[in-house]
Amino acid sequence: MDTGDIKVDDGDPDAETRRKLIELYKVIVNQPDNQLEILHKHRDILDIPITVECRLRCMCITLFEMHPGHNYDMETDRYKLMVCAWMETGLCRCQSNDQQFEKIKCQKKLIHVAAVVGNVPVVEYWVRCGLSLDEETTVSCFTPLFLAVVNNGIELLKYMIQNGADINVTSRHERNTPLMEAMVMRRDEIVHILLDNPKLEVNTVNFQKETALTIAVRVRRRELLPLLIARGADPNHVDCTGFTPLIHAVLEEDDKLLRLLLELGADVNKIDNRGETPLHFAVHNGIELLKYMIQNGADINVTSRYERNTPLMEAMVTRKKEIVQMLLDNPKLDVNATNFRKETALTIAVRVRRRELLPLLIARGADSNHVDCTGFTPLIHAVLEEDDKLLRLLLELGADVNKIDNRGETPLHFAVHNELSCIVKVLLENGADPNAVAGDSFILSPLLIATDSGSDDMLDVLKLLLDNGADVNITNEQGYAPIHNAAWNGLLPSLNLLLDHGSPHDGLTFDKNTPLTLAAHGKHPDVIDRLLPLNCDLNNKDKDLDTALHYAALNDDCITLSRLIRHGADPDVQNRVCTTPLWNAVYAESVEIVKALLKQNVTVEVASVGLNPYDGTKVLYSEPKTPMYVIGEKCLIELGRMLIESGYNMAKESWLLDSKDIPIGLESNESFRQYLIEAYSTPQSLLIQSRNFFRKLFGKKVTVKTEALNIPVPLKNYITLKHL
């Protein structure tokens, strides 16, 4: 036998001792008549362990340690040969002992082999030699007594108990006691032996914090429950999952087990670590369990610790109508109890779409208009579920169609928000107010909401509201009517519907915006086209004195700007900080807009601090700046040349010579700076001065009056800036 290649840890025997130990292992397994004589000859090495090398995955790491599923027949020669082979080679021959898993060493002693094979004489001899019966295996910490339990060695067990073996020892991994293993493996005689022992600690827990009683319930060992409780087992012990034995019995759906536990003193209202009682679990199972628990004092209105749900609330999601009915039939039931979200059972039934339960709940007194912590009523929840059948049923059962939430919104507001035309129709048919106004700090009507989106669904909603009497003149807290919303959002079909239903086309908001101004600000040319023929006030000024033309210039919207001017908008208008459309166009770097405005003979040299287009309270500069300064700051070479060639008066641009006032953009382009300085320093030619004279003389009619002059065409073109 070659054992030279076996790697052993410190403390392992040498090769010769190992050979002798292997022979002794064979003797113990085969149990010859002279086994004690053989052992006596080698008494000096009986207590030396031997190591077997395995892989972590291999079941043989627990050599001689039988677990459920590790079912070797101890009486077969094949098993005996397998045991000897493991010992002999020091390496498990199991096919699963491959190279993919971590190596592990397991140490055993002769006493463990004797316990596994039930060799009582060897164990007796071991005790006579003064050796311990509480030796543990290195992997699972199994003692000989534990191994005797696993292998049903009854006589051996009795002997070891009589000789002081620890009956409360636990295994390393599962931390099970011999009693727990005996119950799982149905070693009933052993269970009785252990329970009769006064040293037994019946409430010892394993790594899952389970006691023997908990395990007995889980594996449905009903016959053991009276014995365990008579021995002092706690019927209300809570394991690591927070479950009591009674909760485990409910989860097993075992009526007899549950009845027995209650008869034996289990607390029917004992909570788990989430604050739930067995009744919370029972509603998910059979009705008989539920009935029996209620008959035995289960609190029907108890709430869980965190969600604060009652059993009735839990029953809403079970799809078991008979359980709900049984709970509702109990006169002690509080049907309007609320959970931590302030939901009632009816609220939950609506959320989970249990239509068939609504009549039962309302007949029992459930409040169909209850408001939860979100401020929502059951009807609002039905809207959010987009369930028209649920909605109709609630309305038939008395739900208030105009009941508001904590923000003042009705179910109709939510239906419009979510663009649910079919739900809107049902609500309007059942008396929903199309002009209900929501909000304390804000004011919102369904019609205003309907102008937030231009989808086909929202257009259908808008039509329904208008056809059912929605007021087109209701405004929000800023004075915005639905038509203002539609114009701002560029919703032409919605705007057309509103105009068809009498909405004023030129109404003012509190900040003095008209639909036309808002459409220009939002850059919606199609809406502008629809409004222009309606004789809108093209030069209306908002609170900052901005007009539609200011916004068109700032948005680089040349199409809108041209149409506004063509219909009579003033291209030279100034806002409260003297900003003109041309100044805005320069700031927006819009070449085409500047060209269009120059052809309108606007005043070019107007200085302004500029306004933030999104916040009229903020200015862009601390002091007024000319368009040419803005051009220099942004280094807009093309625009600079265009203005100068069009007769821009550079006399006011003295900042060009002040090094402290030179904008950063111009510092990075010296050639452009020199170009501007030269234009500033050079007097305008007589030709340019003449052109400026005629342009100033003719004003806005420069094109018409120039055409009437009897001068050459090139000169006419020069005056009217045709070269642009």
TrEMBL record:
Keywords: ANK repeat, Repeat. It comes from the Eukaryota. ANK repeats lie at residues 140-172, 208-240, 241-273, 274-305, 341-373, 374-406, 407-439, 445-477, 478-503, 511-543, 544-576. Gene3D superfamilies: Ankyrin repeat-containing domain. Pfam families: Ank, Ank_2. InterPro entries: Ankyrin_rpt, Ankyrin_rpt-contain_sf. This is Uncharacterized protein. It comes from Patella caerulea (Rayed Mediterranean limpet).
